[in-house]
Design a protein that fits this description.
The chain is an alpha+beta fold. It has five helices and three strands, in the order αααβαβαβ. The chain has a three-stranded mixed β-sheet with strand order 1-2-3. β2, α5 and β3 form a beta-alpha-beta unit. The N and C termini lie far apart (about 70 Å).
């Protein structure tokens, strides 16, 4: 069956087009993965108000150059999946406190890097996770008061 696709008349194989992944798609993937990852930390997620649980992601995507025929054939022969480009991400999160902030940020970096590679075919060259705000049981009902 795979031989039929190469034999069909029409546009030659090298001229059929390319897959491009936009900044917006990578940002949505990263936000979803970060939210899912942070939800596994029960000690932290319970303190963050529902409207503040979605991480904010800014991203910059650079598309990979189109491989030449020889490079494409070598990747196919080796069973490798072509990398579609490179993404740089900055994820801003709000976390519950007290909690292991370092562990949560490391988990977000690890999961986002793995899943952006798997789902979008993009290498993550730079990923920064920033904590914008910490929420505790004492600050849950107001954003203006300071806890002493």
């Amino acid at each position: 069956m795979s031989g039929e696709a190469d034999e069909r008349p029409g546009v030659p194989r090298g001229e059929r087009g390319a897959t491009a992944v936009t900044d917006r798609v990578v940002a949505k993937i990263a936000a979803r993965v970060a939210r899912e990852t942070l939800s596994r930390f029960a000690d932290s997620s319970g303190h963050v108000p529902p409207g503040r649980r979605t991480p904010h992601v800014s991203t910059s995507v650079r598309q990979a150059p189109e491989p030449t025929g020889a490079a494409r054939d070598a990747e196919s022969a080796a069973g490798l999946r072509a990398v579609l480009g490179e993404a740089r991400l900055h994820i801003t999160v709000e976390l519950g406190y007290p909690s292991d902030i370092g562990e949560q940020c490391a988990a977000v970096r690890r999961e986002v890097t793995e899943r952006v590679r798997a789902w979008a075919g993009m290498e993550v060259s730079d990923l920064a996770v920033s904590v914008e705000r910490l929420h505790s049981a004492h600050t849950r009902h107001t954003d203006r008061e300071r806890v002493r």
